[in-house]
Design a protein that fits this description.
Structural class: mainly alpha
Helix content: 40-55%
Largest sheet: none
Shape: globular
Strand content: under 5%
Number of strands: 0
Radius of gyration: 19 Å
Number of helices: 8
Order of helices and strands: HHHHHHHH
Length: 219
C-alpha cells in the first residue's frame, strides 16, 4: 500500500470487464449528496470515528467520486457487523481452536464482529501510540502513513478492513454503501444482471450507456 493507488485498482477492474464496458465517469450522474445521519447499529462512537476515517483514507474524494465515508461505506460495514455475518451465524466456533492452514478458514471462538472490534481497538491504540492522536484527528498525510503502518503491523485486520471497504464500494446501495451507485459508475457495472440480459447483443463492442439499476429501483 505504498501510495494507496485505488484508481489503478479501478482501472484494472474496468479493463477486466465484459463488452458491456461502461459509461464514462465524466458523463455520470452528479455525485451523491452527503450521507444523512444514520444510527450506528454496532460500532461505538470511537469505533465509528476510526472506521469513517479509515474508509475515507482508503477511498479518497477526487474528481471521480466522493470519499468512502460520504459513499456510506462505514454504514455498510456497521450493518454487516450487526447482521448474520457479524454474529458468525454460519461459522463453526466450537473447539478445539488450533492454528491451521489459511485455506481452512478462521479457527477462532470469536465472531467476525468481535474480531473486527478487537482489531479496531488494537489499531486505534497503535495509531495513538505512534502518532499521538486518533486516526480521525490526523491530517490526511498522517492518516495514509498510519494505514500503511497498520498494513505491515496488523495485516490480518488491515486486509479485513480493506475487504469490507471494497465490498461497501461495490455492493448494491440497498446495503448502505455505494451511494449514488458511484462504485458501479467507476467500473461501468450496469447493475442487476437480469435488467440488461437482452442488451448484451445490442451493445456488443459499444459503450453501455444505460443507467445502472439496483434492488431499490425495483422496490
Amino acid at each position: 500500500m505504498a501510495s494507496l493507488p485505488r484508481r489503478g485498482l479501478f482501472a484494472g477492474l474496468a479493463a477486466a470487464g465484459t463488452s458491456l464496458a461502461a459509461s464514462d465517469p465524466a458523463g455520470a450522474d452528479a455525485p451523491p449528496p452527503p450521507p444523512a445521519a444514520e444510527p450506528w447499529l454496532t460500532l461505538s462512537p470511537s469505533e465509528a470515528a476510526f472506521v469513517t476515517a479509515a474508509v475515507a483514507t482508503l477511498i479518497p474524494a477526487d474528481d471521480l467520486s466522493a470519499s468512502g465515508a460520504d459513499l456510506g461505506i462505514g454504514v455498510y460495514i456497521d450493518r454487516q457487523l450487526a447482521g448474520a455475518w457479524g454474529s458468525g451465524a454460519r461459522y463453526y466456533r466450537q473447539g478445539p481452536h488450533i492454528a491451521g492452514k489459511p485455506e481452512l478458514g478462521p479457527q477462532s471462538s470469536l465472531t467476525p464482529r468481535e474480531q473486527f472490534r478487537a482489531g479496531v481497538a488494537g489499531a486505534s491504540a497503535r495509531v495513538r501510540q505512534r502518532f499521538g492522536k486518533g486516526l480521525d484527528e490526523l491530517a490526511e498525510p498522517e492518516q495514509i502513513a498510519a494505514l500503511q503502518d497498520l498494513e505491515t503491523a496488523s495485516p490480518a485486520f488491515f486486509n479485513l478492513l480493506l475487504t469490507l471497504t471494497l465490498e461497501g464500494l461495490f455492493a448494491d446501495p440497498i446495503y448502505g454503501g455505494n451511494r449514488g451507485k458511484a462504485g458501479w459508475t467507476l467500473v461501468g457495472y450496469p447493475g442487476l444482471p437480469a435488467t440488461y440480459r437482452r442488451d448484451i447483443a445490442l451493445y456488443r463492442d459499444r459503450r453501455y450507456d444505460k443507467p445502472a439499476r439496483s434492488i431499490a429501483d425495483f422496490s
